[in-house]
Amino acid sequence: MNPTRRPRRLRRDGVRSLVSEVSLSASDLVAPVFVDATAEERAPIPSMPGHERVPLDDIVARVREVRETGVEAVILFGIPQSKDARGSRAWADDGVVQEAVRRVTADTDAYVITDVCLCEYTDHGHCGVLTSEASERLEAARSSSAVEASATDDSTLTVRNDETLELLRKTAVSHAEAGADMVAPSSMTDGMVGAIRAGLDEADHTDVGIMSYAVKYESAFYGPFRDAADGAPAFGDRRHYQMDPANAREALREARLDAEQGADVLMVKPALSYLDIVRSVREEFDHPVAAYNVSGEYAMLHAAAEKEWLDLEAVAHESLLSIKRAGADLIVTYFAEDVARRL
Ligand code: PBG
How many CB atoms lie within 10 A of CB 153? Predict the structure, then answer.
């Protein structure tokens, strides 16, 4: 029997690209950049090959490198000079991100997005103000050697939601004052988008957009990032504020809240293990959808490639293509420069 329908006809070289449904372009990609107030020179991040923590004096050069690949947007993460209980360097006018934004916007044409969170700035590594119970637990842990036992038994209710909102608002406004084009709150604090939108509008930054990490899961794929940005929690985990990986309907609820509060772009994070979520947010909302191809997703492909088990270039491209196919308009990815260079 000869088949009469032959999908293979459209897989030949001349026609393949004519019928391809999605494609990748450098303008879809956002490159994460780490700026480090404690660094004198660039320091490689071991679990994220090709990425470095960059000192302030090198940040303009670093962003120019990104732009040369065709990638137009960066998202900045800061490693501050010092940390404290409330994360006050997050909203300091002379903070590391604020200073980096000033330099990058003065000297490059990059579109500058800033991550708004407290975990890189608090000495306990949580994304907000600790409850008194959690502070006591932390104190007890610090003054005894039994850190693990006393501090990790109960991670619920570590962070005060509403007190954190004010700090996020101040942080976002300080980024806008420095010249950020868009702010990206990543702490999964209830009400964060509304608080930040109100703060930006009051301060006359009505043009500064919000890309909300609307659907952010409590994922083990953030490991390498936490090394890179020095933002691992000193005790417990983030499961009472980030989403349970088991939940899909809740993702729509989260996205809806952020949409109602004025988010301009809705982000899903991580990307590859959550492509179903990217798709459902795409279908449910008419906002642009972003996906964050996170550090662990980057690190595992590099690790396999290092063993020569995978072809890095091919799997990186295929990963990003799959994220677009799922429905993302833009992708935050550590592969941005490598993939863009080859497009
Ligand atoms: C800050 C933040 C994190 C990431 C982006 N912003 C870490 C976390 O939530 O623990 C992770 C990014 C990555 O893994 O690439 N809250």
Answer: 10
